[in-house]
Amino acid sequence: RTQDPAGRRPSIWDKDSKARPTARQIHDAIQLLMMDIPTTAPIESNVLVPSNEDTPPHFQRRPDEERLRLDATKGERGEQQQQYAEYRPGSGYAGPLSPPPGTQAGPMTPGMGTASGNSNPGMEAGVGAGGNPGPLMEIDEVVSVRDQEAFAAKHLPEVGHDVKDFQVYTWQLNNWKKLDKKLTSDEFECGGHKWRILLFPFGNSTAAPNDSTVSVYLDYAEPKKVPEGWHACVQFALVISNIHDPTVYTVSHAHHRFIAEASDWGFTRFSELHKLFHPQEGHSRPIIEEDSADITVYVRVLEDPTGVLWHNFLNYDSKKETGYVGLKNQGTTSYMNSLLQSLPSTKFQQKMIPTESVALALQRVFYHLQISDQPVGTTELTKSLGWTSFLQHDVQEFNRVLMDKLESKMKGTKAEGAIVKLLVGKMKSYIKCVNVDYESSKIEEFTDIQLNVKGMKNLYESFRDYVAVEMLDGENKYQASGFGLQDARKGIIFESFPPVLHLQLKRFEYDMQRDAMVKVNDRHEFPFELDLGEFLDSTADRSKPWVYKLHGVIVHSGDHHGGHYFALIKADRETRWLKYDDDRVTPVTDKEVLEENYGGEVAFNGLTRGNQVPAMMRFTNAYMLVYIRESAIDGILAPFTGEDTPPHLKRRLNEERLQLEAKKCEREQQHLFLTAKVITDETFSRHEGFDLATFDEKNWSPFDLPSFRVLKQETYSAFKSRVAQHFSYSENQFRLWVLVDRLNKTVRPDTPIPENEPTLTVEVIRNNMATRQNDLPLYLDIIPDPSKPDPPPQSIMIFLKHFNPSKQTLLGAGKAYMLRTSKFHCLLKEIKPGMIELMSTHVSFAQSEIVDGDVICFQVDLPEKESQDLESQGLHSNANYFYKFLQNRKDGT
């Protein structure tokens, strides 16, 4: 593109082609050039501006959307409403079109996080830390970074929270290529806090060691001076712009909850450095020009009325922040948790629940909700209902089952009829003839009302639909007794509403086209105050207004196939609304109670319906509403005190709580302890089977194999003193042997614990002498002569078992210290289960490889006839056969 010598019009040609362009090509090229004029370039009066008549058909666009208008007097580009494909300022774009003029695209995905590289674990995008907008957007005009109002409107989308303070700060940087690797701007104040810009002009080496990337963050300047629990909720935009032309820039925006542990937030990959030094498509000058650039930050400090805006909940304490605790989710029990959380708030209902079976489990939950500092479990309640924690249920179904169970348990108690008094209303179904005096009616009780959502704007319309009158006429006339076929009105009218009114919104319906149940996510509004007077029969008692206050909203998030429930509860007249989401309880605003649970369309980033993409439907919406009659609120929501819990129930529940706390403490300290199990001669004498005893806890009682819970750092002398006291021995009457697992899978005494090292700890003994074992198995060896505490020299300790063929028993018969060189007569040696060897009488113990702890079995030698008689009865005539029997029995089990 050049100017011709006369300076009248641009001349256009393909410099690489000898062929001259056609008139159509020239016209099309001019159209494209017109869209590429720099925003700061003066527009000459002799520049060709084609009219619509001159524009080829494929360039004509709707005037209100995509026409390019030039303002010659201001010398700036006017409004351009061309639709760009998913353009994200500062984060690149998707699609074939260019970014909007006046804005250069940043990196495709700027890495959002702290300067230290943390992405703030636990925060969800758009919740804990917002990023650039993702929906399709229309770019209406090019703005200057210095036009604060217009720039903020374009690049800081509304997030639905009140603004406490708004400030803009610009930092000019020169000699960019010579800047330090890290630098900060001067401080500025916004919202009562001091802030600064943190810049890594060549990339943050900690998080992304890449010198081709610019990293920039908003940094809180005084993180070490803030009090405990300090936070600031901030929405901000970071901009790098040309110092001469502030319409040439790259921008990224975010929102973040600044805390002392996460005091900076921004973009590690804000922009590729080389793009800042070169003009990008649609621009004649770069962002960094003459080695200089402006960095501007737009900061909005937002109000946080709930105290949990964009909280990551990593160290959140529900009891401390709200005074309430939640309920543990067993897996799929959010339906139960959401309803149960609404019941304790109706204190009258809690007081009337009896104290046995299902009711006891429910009272236990309520009691712990009052006194516990931690989320309360509900396992016992689901078991008492016969429900599994892995099966999802509908909250209305659970409500009806629970109320039926409670009502049956209340029969015959002083609380009988309390459910009816609190939760049951009456309605009349009627058919009334138009032309004759005849009416057929039936009065029924109800515990909840199911209201249509589809096609209904709000709760009042749903009630009017519920009581709408249907005309029975024409071919559908009513057969009135004694009057024949008559025109009639058919409908429902309410006789009374209960003090606590449960309304179920019919969010699920059958879709004939899909042949499946689907969720109705239509918008349906409900008020904080509901006047039901118009839906009552004319004969109803109106001495008190039928005005109800919203007490609870049970919300379903998901679809027909599955989802999650949570509850929004207002505990009394004065307290704020709280959100009970399983084990977490948080404050919420009125908007979160109403607007965010109406259902309907979701607007993106504050964009209006006229300029947003086709809206998505909210899948999180109100499913059940709990209203309390205003005249009864004070009695129903009366404070629940300790005196309201029966003394016997309180005593029982406190004992259970203390036991659970003790077990929990024991589990938490388990790593500090080990278990020492002690075998005695008495244990051996009663044991029938292999080894000296069984260590399978299923097959022995604590009396058979005494166990000691021992601190790992306890000294051996202190531990031995405890053992002596337990068995009523003096410490010099016994020694303790460590039992080891042999390679042949037997457990036998191996080495006596040395008595000359009193400071030796139990853990050292276990690690050095009883390897491959978590516990410490010991054998208590009685010393016949305390004056000779050590075993005889050159001796071994062997254990003897006696097989009694007539009784078919194999029991321990004691132990003996034998010289290694001694010989013996016919004995069976117990090597391991399944390996029993007959011992030779002509060799010594040493030659038979007998060592400490080995077991030798003996029996009376039977005559051949006695052996045959036993075997004919299916009995065992010798120990070898009996051992095989024991082995087979063990293998069979």
From TrEMBL:
User: Which segments constitute the MATH domain?
Assistant: 166-299
What region holds the USP domain?
Answer: 325-630
Q: Which GO terms describe its molecular function?
A: cysteine-type deubiquitinase activity
Instruction: Provide a GO CC annotation, any one.
Output: cytosol
Composition skew (Basic and acidic residues), residue ranges = 1-19, 61-79
According to the record, the residues making up region (Disordered) are 1-23, 47-134
Give me the segments passing through the membrane.
none
Q: Which GO terms describe its biological process?
A: protein deubiquitination; regulation of protein stability
Q: What UniProt keywords are attached to this protein's entry? A: Ubl conjugation pathway
One Pfam family, please name it.
USP7_ICP0_bdg
Put simply, this protein is called Ubiquitinyl hydrolase 1
**Which species is this record about?**
Mycena maculata
